[in-house]
Amino acid sequence: MGKYKIFVDGSSGTTGLRIADRLAERDEFEILKISEADRKDVRARAAVINESDLSFLCLPDDAAREVVPLLRDDVRILDTSTAHRTAPGWVYGLPELHGTREALKTATRVAVPGCHATGFIAPVAPLVELGIIPKAAHLNVTSLTGYSGGGKKMIAEYEAERTNKALNAPRPYGLALHHKHLPEMAAVTGLDTAPNFVPVVADYYAGMETMIPLDVTALGVSAPQVASALAEYYDGQPMVKVHPLCEGTDGGFLAANKLAGKDTLEIYCLANPDGTRMQLISLFDNLGKGSSGAAVQCMNLMLGLEETKGLAR
């Protein structure tokens, strides 16, 4: 068989650049190109996508929505924007969730999960599926990210000569509590209500730490039950690891950049001494399992390639 024809639409952004770099290291792909003049012409872009075996949409939401109706139904699409994450007919690209890996193998429309959403969904969706967290639960989540998650403009701001002292400290944002990841957080976990979610950006390049407190007493379960349920759910998954209850931290600390450069995700199950309160923490790279790594993992499955090929573990 010849090489797969791959196109990255929007390859100048942070996610697109990272995906393009990953693809360039692999010899089973022919990377399709588009002229600078045609980059802003939606029909010209659609024509290139329709020549591909698989294309990545690394675009703003509106641009992704604009091009999709112009595409052949059989062209495999991986959309890294927010545009189609809860849209009918699109597979949500978190292979580790039950049923998703098989769906990805035949899918032509796949939405790559959001970074903060991945950190929330990975521990919560299994617990909702298993009935440990009721669908009516109102959860809280705080998610800390490196500044690379803000894209080229934010990266430049943090890496330029500092004139703004606010950049030296962690900064909560999305304070209107209307973050764009909320719809997928509710839809994919099965919760009736999206969580009360506060993201925080801090002065380091990459890495994400998503923290979800659980009142296990109110849920009528124990901390060991929760930890065991997650460990069993993700048993054998190559890109997700669940640490045993109250284990895995670095002397009681957990740095958000610990998995920077990796495409894996680790879940920490922490509890107070009597086991009445828990903190679930997802640790991963916002540019890895939170974006380009997740996209490549999905691509491998969609093309029938080894799932972890080209991924850093």
Automatic annotation (TrEMBL):
Which family would the database say this protein is a member of? Belongs to the NAGSA dehydrogenase family. Type 2 subfamily.
- Where does this protein chiefly localize? cytoplasm
Asked if the record carries the keyword Oxidoreductase, the reply is yes
GO BP terms: namely:
L-arginine biosynthetic process
Record's keyword terms, sorted:
Amino-acid biosynthesis, Arginine biosynthesis, Cytoplasm, NADP, Oxidoreductase
Q: Which GO terms describe its molecular function?
A: N-acetyl-gamma-glutamyl-phosphate reductase activity; NAD binding
Asked whether the keyword Cytoplasm is assigned, the reply is yes
Residue ranges occupied by any Semialdehyde dehydrogenase NAD-binding domain in the UniProt entry: 5-107
Give the main EC class.
Answer: oxidoreductase
Reactions the enzyme catalyzes: N-acetyl-L-glutamate 5-semialdehyde + phosphate + NADP(+) = N-acetyl-L-glutamyl 5-phosphate + NADPH + H(+)
Function comment = Catalyzes the NADPH-dependent reduction of N-acetyl-5-glutamyl phosphate to yield N-acetyl-L-glutamate 5-semialdehyde.
Q: Where in the cell is it found?
A: Cytoplasm
Question: Known EC number(s)?
Answer: 1.2.1.38
Question: What species does this protein belong to?
Answer: Gemmiger formicilis
- What is the protein name given in its UniProt record? N-acetyl-gamma-glutamyl-phosphate reductase
Family annotation (InterPro entries): AGPR (IPR050085), AGPR_dimerisation_dom (IPR058924), AGPR_type-2 (IPR010136), NAD(P)-bd_dom_sf (IPR036291), Semialdehyde_DH_NAD-bd (IPR000534)
According to UniProt, this protein's pathway is: Amino-acid biosynthesis; L-arginine biosynthesis; N(2)-acetyl-L-ornithine from L-glutamate: step 3/4
Cellular-component GO terms for this entry: cytoplasm
The gene it comes from is argC
Q: Which residues form the active site?
A: 115
Cite the Pfam families for this sequence.
Semialdhyde_dh, Semialdhyde_dhC_1
